[in-house]
Each structure stands twice: as C-alpha cells, then as structure tokens.
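in:
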C-alpha cells in the first residue's frame, strides 16, 4: 500500500559518532543544548543530511539526530517504513525500537525509495503527543534517511498566542528550579538549586521570596541548603526536597524544624503535601529511571507509596483524590489513586522531562517540560502546546499557577531568572 512520507523534521548535529551512545535517547541537557533546525525533505520524503550539514564528509564518522512530534487520538500500532544511507537508530517516545547498520541496501542514497530496501516497523503510539527520533550516522554510501507511514501524521496542536509575558526578574538566581505561592502571605518562594552544587565545599542552595508582581523581596530568605528543588506548604510549614533529605521549615520564624533522610533515595526532585498530612516525594533515580518510585512521608516515617509503572518520575500534584505524576521514562502523565495506589495512564506527552504540574480553574492540567515547553491538557485528555521556549534558550521547570491572575510563574533554570506568563483566556 502507498505510504505518506514524513516531513517537518527538526535536526541537530553533527556529532562525532564514536562519542554518542546509540542505544539510548539523548539526555535532557543534550536535547536542550542542541541547535535544532527545521530540515527539508524532498517530494519523496528523503532527508539528505550532507545538504543539511555541508562540508561534513559522509564517511567521516558523523551523526545527526532528527525528531518529529505528532498527535494521536488513540493508542495504536503505527506502520512505519524506513530507508537510510549510512546507519540508523530509531526511538519512539525515548524507547529504542530499531537499529540498522550499513548493508547492500544502504550503499547509495537511491536505495532510500526502493521498496525492497525499506525496513517496516510497528511503532507503539499512545494517545496524545508522540515523538519519533532517528539517529543517522554517516557512511560510505551517504548520509540520509526517508521515513513514511500508512497515513499522514497529525500535527501537534499549538496555541502560542495564548500566553503573554507579564514580568521577568533579573538573572540573579542560581539555577532556579521551583516556584511556590504562599497562600497566607501572597509571596512566592523560589528554590535556587545550583547545578554546580556537587563541586561546592558547602551547601550553596537557597530560597528567595518574590512579590506577585515579580519584585525580589529577599534574595536569600533561607540560605545554606543542599540543592533544593520541589516545595509545598501546609499549616505554615514549608516542605522542601534536598538531595537526600526532606526538609521542613517553620515559615513564621524561618527555622528548620525537621530534616529527615529519605531511605534508599537517589534523586528526590518534587513533592506535594496532602490534606491528611502526607507528603509525597518523587525519586527520579538518576541513571536508573525504571527503578524510580514515589515515597510517602507521614507521622515521621517514610514508605514507598508507588513504584510499579513509575519510570523517571518528576513532577507531582494532587487532584481529585489522585496523585498526578510526570512519568518521563515513558513520556506519560500518570494518575495514582491515593486510596488504592492503582497507577493508570492519563495521556502521552512524548519525550520531554515532565517537570511542573498544576490544575487550572477549569480542570485543565498544566504541564511543563524542563526543556522549554508548556502544555494544557483538557479534562478529555486533549493536549495543546501553549509555549515553546527552547528556541529562546530558557527552561520551564517546576512552575506555579495563580488562578486569580491566570498567571504561570516559571523558574527558568539555566537562564537564572523567573518569568511570569499570563494566559489570555
């Protein structure tokens, strides 16, 4: 059956092929730091990377990465056809699905369109956003690829006109990671993580306070913290993630009233407090995402609250008696029932690091990718991209949402500032 060529790729590179782990999707710093550009495919869908990267010898051991994001209205198996010159590795939503090396069918670029040279795959596509990623290494016969599917890929939905910048602070923070509003005092807390914390001789992280219009009230409201990240506040106690500890701060006095080592933790990143006094903490398990888990802290004790189906967990929020989880390992927003602990999928978001999660006044879930995107997910699980800050080179980490002002307050991590974005409607 005739297939529809995939166009609209973005690509980055070239990289020395020998320095790239071909079996794993690139790390989030690699994705954020790459110079992504749109690449043109010809009428048959072929992408010639020697044209995209002129002057790079085809047999010179170079590698490029191409990505294509699309929507799906259902879980399905997607028929995918691939031809290539050089060698290739294919990923769907971060997961490797195919590896091909040079062969008789890849010795020249004309083989890209020959039916007998096409490799046919069935890609597991989920409802929501999905990303096909292709690593293409240069070879003696060329440096190109062609991909096609049985039906045209639906574009991701975008409404970038929905947000406008309301204010931005100076770039005086130290890799700000999380923002939280204090509902009693109408101030914002900002954690400065300091992504060089491991090289410091003493804890260098801190918490700042901002007014709701972006004025820095106290740059170092509380200092000497060990790479603080996610926060939440209950009963005038501010809970904060440090690298191996859960920290409790009495807000009125700024006094640390508790610091509890989290057992067997690797990289605690976000937390949320429940009405019953529970504090839920995500442990991403850097370097071993499948072992990721969520802890619950209650009455001075920790337990593993959920780990089955939890993979690279980051952002957390509580809504409708369930814990919303940004499950970056498989690209899913997940829901964990607080009573039964049953884990279920909500919607696919693709390949980003799911960092911030909030729910707006209309029941939409607002989600950020650390790499620079913000999405709105409707109660019927339709996903719309509201912002893409990757081209502008700033992150969208663990944000706060203020419904009275329809304001997203975003820590920009590597940019060292906080930006506020107002939703127009």
């Amino acid at each position: 059956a005739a297939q529809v060529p995939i166009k609209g790729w973005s690509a980055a590179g070239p990289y020395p092929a020998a320095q790239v782990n071909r079996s794993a999707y690139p790390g989030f710093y690699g994705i954020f730091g790459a110079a992504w550009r749109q690449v043109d495919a010809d009428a048959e869908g072929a992408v010639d990377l020697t044209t995209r990267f002129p002057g790079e010898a085809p047999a010179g051991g170079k590698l490029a990465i191409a990505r294509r994001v699309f929507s799906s209205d259902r879980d399905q198996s997607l028929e995918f056809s691939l031809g290539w010159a050089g060698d290739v590795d294919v990923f769907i939503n971060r997961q490797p699905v195919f590896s091909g090396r040079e062969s008789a069918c890849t010795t020249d670029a004309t083989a890209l369109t020959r039916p007998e040279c096409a490799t046919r795959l069935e890609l597991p596509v989920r409802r929501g956003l999905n990303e096909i990623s292709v690593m293409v290494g240069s070879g003696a016969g060329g440096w190109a690829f062609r991909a096609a599917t049985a039906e045209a890929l639906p574009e991701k939905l975008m409404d970038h006109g929905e947000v406008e910048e309301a204010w931005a602070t100076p770039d005086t923070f130290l890799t700000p990671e999380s923002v939280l509003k204090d509902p009693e005092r109408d101030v914002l807390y900002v954690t400065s993580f300091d992504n060089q914390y491991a090289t410091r001789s003493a804890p260098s992280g801190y918490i700042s306070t901002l007014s709701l219009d972006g004025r820095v009230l106290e740059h170092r409201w509380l200092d000497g913290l060990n790479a603080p990240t996610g926060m939440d506040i209950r009963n005038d106690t501010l809970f904060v993630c440090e690298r191996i500890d859960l920290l409790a701060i009495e807000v009125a006095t700024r006094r640390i009233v508790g610091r509890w080592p989290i057992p067997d933790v690797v990289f605690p990143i976000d937390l949320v407090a429940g009405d019953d006094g529970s504090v839920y903490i995500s442990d991403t398990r850097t370097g071993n995402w499948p072992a990721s888990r969520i802890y619950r802290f209650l009455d001075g004790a920790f337990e593993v609250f959920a780990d089955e189906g939890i993979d690279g967990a980051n952002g957390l929020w509580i809504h409708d008696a369930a814990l919303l989880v940004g499950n970056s390992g498989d690209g899913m927003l997940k829901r964990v029932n607080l009573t039964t602990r049953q884990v279920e999928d909500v919607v696919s978001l693709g390949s980003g690091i799911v960092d911030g999660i909030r729910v707006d006044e209309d029941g939409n879930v607002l989600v950020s990718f650390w790499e620079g995107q913000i999405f709105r997910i409707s109660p019927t699980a339709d996903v719309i991209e509201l912002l893409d800050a990757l081209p502008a080179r700033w992150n969208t980490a663990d944000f706060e949402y203020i419904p009275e002002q329809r304001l997203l307050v975003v820590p920009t991590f590597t940019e060292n500032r906080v930006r506020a974005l107002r939703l127009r409607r």
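note: Residues 72 and 127 are 5 Å apart (CA to CA).
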